[in-house]
Design brief:
heterodimer, A: mainly beta, globular, B: seven-stranded mixed beta sheet, four-stranded antiparallel beta sheet
């Protein structure tokens, strides 16, 4: 089983739609969780951290369910510019620098 | 600010050739990393350097060597390239070492696309 698993998609949604991605992780001792965004042929960039209580940043909401070991990302009112691949990222160990484990990503295509 | 700069951006090698990917960051970060990204595999850690003077193996270190030249620079060397090393390589840096101040934010370079024939 992969340490971090995501549905690769693509998710094709119309502009203005709400879309949600889930990600599961295998290591129950994982400490920190993040969503990164990667545009086509570009480098990944941090989108947001995921906190136990859930957190929101504008149109983006992230949730963590430790009991079921999954993370979710909700995007409301999708924009064309949201088209990208969204990487679920887990920090599995305490200490040891920022050794992060990346999922393979979920591709989102927002269409007119 | 330039952030993380990688060179070269593109390279084609023949099997058995050697090359070094260069990476430099201007954010005064302690930690630096080399990842490779392949279709369907996600980003996989090759080597990392938690601080100047230290390097450690990641998930896929075989066939690679690294040098943390100073705080700014972290290079990745392929001594004898193989077709299986065809990939996109990303260098990254972060400002934290311990979990207590870990933001989880890696700053990536633009990537180096390597093809080994």
């Amino acid at each position: 089983r992969k340490e971090v698993e995501q549905d690769p998609g693509p998710f094709n949604v119309p502009e203005g739609a709400t879309v949600a991605f889930n990600c599961t992780y295998s290591n129950s001792a994982s400490q920190s969780f993040f969503w990164y965004r990667q545009d086509c042929r570009k480098e990944p960039k941090l989108l947001m951290s995921v906190y136990s209580s859930g957190n929101e940043d504008g149109r983006f909401t992230a949730q963590l369910n430790r009991a079921s070991q999954y993370i979710s990302l909700l995007i409301r009112d999708s924009k064309l510019s949201d088209s990208a691949t969204y990487l679920c990222v887990v920090k599995p160990f305490t200490g040891g620098g920022n050794k992060l484990t990346f999922g393979t990503g979920t591709q989102l295509k927002v269409e007119l | 600010n330039a952030g993380v700069t990688q060179t070269p951006k593109f390279q084609v090698l023949k099997t058995g050739q050697s090359m070094t990917l260069q990476c430099a960051q201007d954010m005064n970060h302690n930690s630096m990393y080399w990842y490779r990204q392949d279709p369907g595999m996600g980003l996989r850690l090759i080597y990392y350097s938690a601080s100047e003077g230290t390097t450690d193996k990641g998930e896929v270190p075989n066939g690679y060597n690294v040098s943390r030249l100073n705080k700014r620079e972290f290079s990745l060397r392929l001594e004898s390239a193989a077709p299986s090393q065809t990939s996109v390589y990303f260098c990254a840096s972060s400002e934290t070492v311990g979990v207590s101040t870990n933001t989880g934010e890696l700053f990536f370079g633009e990537g180096s696309r390597l093809t080994v024939l």
